[in-house]
């Protein structure tokens, strides 16, 4: 669900690791709505930048206006701004549209050393944008450049306090918050600057804010070349979290953790500085909401088992009327016994349900089963089997196995798992009756079993299938993909039990 509108003003990186492409992935991973205004096209990959094509600033401005005057933005995030003129245009529009939050990543030089903002434009950035900035996210080299360009002396950094002091000085230039990123200057365990690679243990990002507030975010130093676009991604993660309502320290801490995990799980692409994994914590459901049952029945683990159940020779013999009557008698008695336990399982589902609507739904199913059982008794009577005889019949193994499996899932797992164990019966009988109704080999006139087929194709049964599917659809979208796979296994197992049920009786 989309929450938070973010307009990114940045350059494009065709290799997808940095710039607009990275920003949009971050925003997508956070469930935000992303808009873009493109300041420059670049030619680059993990090995470096080999070309920059600057977009005319008035065109960049028109893109910004098109977004703001229509969709609007909760946050604007800027990256590579490419030219002094573009900075001026953006500053004017930010004031005109009064966008509440401005996240500025002062991109100047790429990791590979390419100039992404002309040196002279730092003056425009300081003069026009910093006073409107909610949070500025320089790394230490960028922070140093900003300060020296503004006539300030920068002392060599010896400790975290020096980084904090640097942030404070930049804050004087206008931003409400400044996050000085420590990735370029790892510390030892005792928080003094590491002098050798072996000593690099800890990275500290320092956030300074209003009224003297400070937040230090410490992360373990990761010896990794997968750092292309970390700055862009971090600023976008902050933008996303603020757009969704987080306060700044919470947004910054969460964004730092997001990047830390992105580097840890990086996909190792390219031969230079590779991209992060932006989707390390994103779940994608393999079906669209409302279409789980369709997905389920087409699932590779389900499809053949489902077809074996629905088109079972026992079923086909019901359809063409050739099923031996003794088999049908045996089946209907066992099915009666099955339905007793199927009712218990639905009563258990009522107990496990959390809303009165779902409880009453299970209750309705039990009433429907009672109606179905009366039909079974009528059938039995017509074959000369009286009710006491049915009651006295022993359950066959497949009947016991199936029903107790469903009840065990219900006892040991949650409500939805129980619904998945019940589903093959509910959906399956509907599917069987529908298939037989449409099948060319089905005989209607004079078929002893036609009434059975009609029962499961009748409006009330079709409605029960619809309601049952709706319940599953409503709840399944809230599960994780791995849980969905587990639930599908339960469905497959119960479907195999259905096949076992048909197999109890000779069909020729
Ligand atoms: C379009 C664009 N924007 C920003 C960066 C900086 O990212 P990095 O410092 O990781 O190279 C980049 N390389 N390209």
TrEMBL record:
The record's annotation in InterPro entries points to:
Haem_Oase-like_multi-hlx, HMP/HMP-P_kinase_dom, PM/HMP-P_kinase-1, Ribokinase-like, Thiaminase-2/PQQC, Thiaminase_II
* Record-annotated Thiaminase-2/PQQC domain positions: 299-504
| Record-annotated Pyridoxamine kinase/Phosphomethylpyrimidine kinase domain positions | 13-277
- Any one GO MF annotation of this record: hydroxymethylpyrimidine kinase activity
Q: Name one GO cellular component term.
A: cytosol
Using the record for this protein, list the coiled-coil segments as residue ranges, or answer none: none
Q: Name one GO biological process term.
A: thiamine biosynthetic process
Protein name, UniProt field: Phosphomethylpyrimidine kinase
**Natural source organism:** Trichoderma gamsii
